[in-house]
Design a protein that fits this description.
The protein has 203 residues and is of the alpha/beta class. The protein has one domain: Endonuclease Chain A (Endonuclease, Chain A), CATH 3.30.870.10. A 7-stranded mixed β-sheet has the order 1-7-6-5-2-3-4. A hairpin with a 3-residue loop joins strand 6 and strand 7. Helix 2 packs parallel to helix 4.
């Protein structure tokens, strides 16, 4: 019986060697995973981030934690995850809150490029991308971002630490949460309309 509930990684310590190391571990996890689910209510999921958007995200991480500045190494590793989309029979189900399309990270040009990238991502093999409209009636409270890897690991990131959840019961709770959140999402043409509307608003 597995009695371990979760492992915590404090960012102020874990990032001492820079963002490149953290992103290398994430890249390795993506490489090893066949089926994953990701929920991000207010930021674009990492595997779908453009270089400019990822740079803006990681710059804020480095500045906030006052850690080693190797943002470009982190950007290279993070965006490398995209190579696995549609490869080797891998499947990805991603849910973004509509707010994720609006959260300004990197300025107008970065956001314009990121939104265009999301429009292209709707056509990717192996990816099912849903958007939860801001005014949708939710089946479950929004909660926090999380990722589920092969129904064996849930990764949650907070301001202070990263949390790896491995308890079967807790993983099952996150799987249930994902199913309930999916009920409020739109896909295909409806998701495209939401992204295009935000792209038009950015100008």
């Amino acid at each position: 019986m597995n009695t371990q509930r979760h492992e915590q990684r404090r960012w102020d310590r874990y990032l001492e060697a820079g963002t490149g190391r953290v992103q290398d571990e994430s890249l390795d996890l993506v490489r090893k995973t066949k089926n994953s689910r990701h929920y991000c209510p207010n930021i674009v999921w990492g595997n779908l981030q453009t270089e400019d958007y990822a740079r803006a995200v990681l710059r804020r991480v480095v500045d906030f934690h006052e850690t080693h500045d190797d943002v470009e190494a982190g950007v290279a590793r993070r965006t490398a995850r995209a190579q696995f989309l549609g490869q080797g029979g891998r499947t990805y189900r991603a849910l973004l809150g509509e707010q994720a399309l609006r959260t300004n990270l990197g300025g107008t040009e970065a956001m314009r490029g990121q939104l265009r990238h999301l429009l292209q991502a709707l056509e990717l093999t192996g990816l099912k991308l849903g958007i939860i409209p801001a005014r949708a009636e939710l089946a479950l409270y929004p909660g926090h971002s999380f990722s589920i890897f092969d129904s064996r690991l849930v990764v949650v990131e907070t301001f202070s630490a990263g949390l790896d959840v491995t308890s079967g019961e807790e993983v099952a709770a996150y799987e249930k949460a994902f199913v309930w959140l999916e009920r409020s999402a739109v896909y295909g043409a409806e998701a495209r309309r939401l992204i295009e509307a935000e792209l038009n608003a950015v100008g």
